[in-house]
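Bug #77: duplicate submission created two jobs. Keeping one. Sequence:
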Amino acid sequence: MKKSATWLIIIAVAGLVLWVVKSYNNMVQLEEQVETAWGQVENQYQRRIDLIPNLVATVKGYASHEKETFESVIAARAKATQITIDPSNATPEQLAAFQNAQGELGQALGRLMAVAESYPELKANENFLQLQSQLEGTENRISVARDSFNETARLFNTTVRRFPANIIANIFGFEKKPYFEAEEGANKAPKIEF
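Kept job's structure:
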């Protein structure tokens, strides 16, 4: 009888160890997916930032007296490139600051596009049209990358909060990841002013 009890204890301990290892490895995999998804978000924002100098230079050639608009785009671009986030230690505040800087850049680009609308010969310029199309595509890619990040973060957060996996998460320091959220007032159309 004692041998069977000993074997049951060994099997139970081995099962528990296997479950802990499996849970831990699953959380590591999900955390890596969150970091990869964040990398894609940054990649798309970087693509937008890389397009801006070409777009500004093209518009500048046609609208040299719109200096203030160009300066605001350049300043917003500089601010957006200064904020970096480590996805493994991201806080909601850091994500909000990143979103705010990217939002300011989006508004500055909106003003730049409004300036472009005032110049029919610019709107017919093939280089400008190509840059505008690339920027539009990039904005769509940013949206898709943010959605993917949020979905990956949701999957990770659900895993680390579910019982009994939350015990393993707490032991090994896995913490909930923040989400991208709509900016305050995003449900209203932006006002473009000169």
